[in-house]
Amino acid sequence: MPAPEIVINGDLDELISHAADLFVQIARDAIARFDSFAVALAGGSTPRKLYSLLSSDDYRSALDWSKAAFFFGDERNVPSDSPESNFRMANETLLKPLSAERSQIHRWRTELADPDAAADDYDETLRRHFDTNARGFDLVLLGLGRDGHTASLFPHTRALHERERCAVANWIDDLGDHRLTVTVPVINRASNVVFLVTGVEKAPSVAQILHGDFKPEEFPAQLVTPENGPVYWLLDEAAASQLHYSI
């Protein structure tokens, strides 16, 4: 298993620029090999800035975006037009500006009767995609919570142990609600995984995950160990500030 590729950036702008360049490189490589590119998008403020840059004039012409398929690593249990929706954020900052076709966009159908129904539907969507393309995602974008969760794989939750399904509704006691998430095997089947992590409040978890003891029940991001390619950790200086304490 290759070691994580850790890149410490001076500030948020530098991190976002690095992430955009890496995104384009991975997408170009996939399109050259397979004539398509499949990405699982993440929610959050840092991905929002990345998507805005990717859809800007500087990057809009960098790819043949018509060959991209857009998925979502996780979603909140809210309507797709909710301000809390990961889909809405990505749609406003990336998908609409790029004029992505509806057929390119694969969102969680949170309008279904319940979270389990939405998870069942997305599980089928992912299975069809993987069966058709005979490979995992070309890129999975991930964030990191201060508690060590990634996607919606939260500490001490049932989804951490799921190995058969591609997507599940994961009950989070601290939130009093379900979150919808892809599972660990889906992430680890990806050709590339990129963590985007900023802020000093994430520093203790970053240090533990990258250099501490293996405690995936407490720090679920430690379960991200891709089988088919690298995992990149793009950090700002604040998020990386405790790494030297744990080496």
State the gist of this model.
This protein has helices spanning 12-34, 45-54, 57-60, 86-95, 115-133, 184-188, 203-211, 243-246; strands at 5-9, 37-41, 68-72, 74-76, 139-142, 167-172, 177-182, 193-197, 231-236. With 247 residues, it is of the alpha/beta class. It is globular.
Give an overview in words.
This protein has 247 residues and is an alpha/beta fold. The protein has helices at 12-34, 45-54, 57-60, 86-95, 115-133, 184-188, 203-211, 243-246, and strands at 5-9, 37-41, 68-72, 74-76, 139-142, 167-172, 177-182, 193-197, 231-236. The chain has a 6-stranded parallel sheet with strand order 1-9-8-5-2-3, covered by helices on one side. A 3-stranded antiparallel sheet has the order 4-7-6.
Query: Looking at the structure, what is the overall shape?
Result: globular
Q: What are the segments in which pLDDT stays under 50 over at least 5 consecutive residues? A: none
Question: Biggest β-sheet, characterized?
Answer: 6 strands, parallel
DSSP helix count? 8
* Second rung of CATH, namely the architecture: 3-Layer(aba) Sandwich
Note the gap between the termini: 19 Å
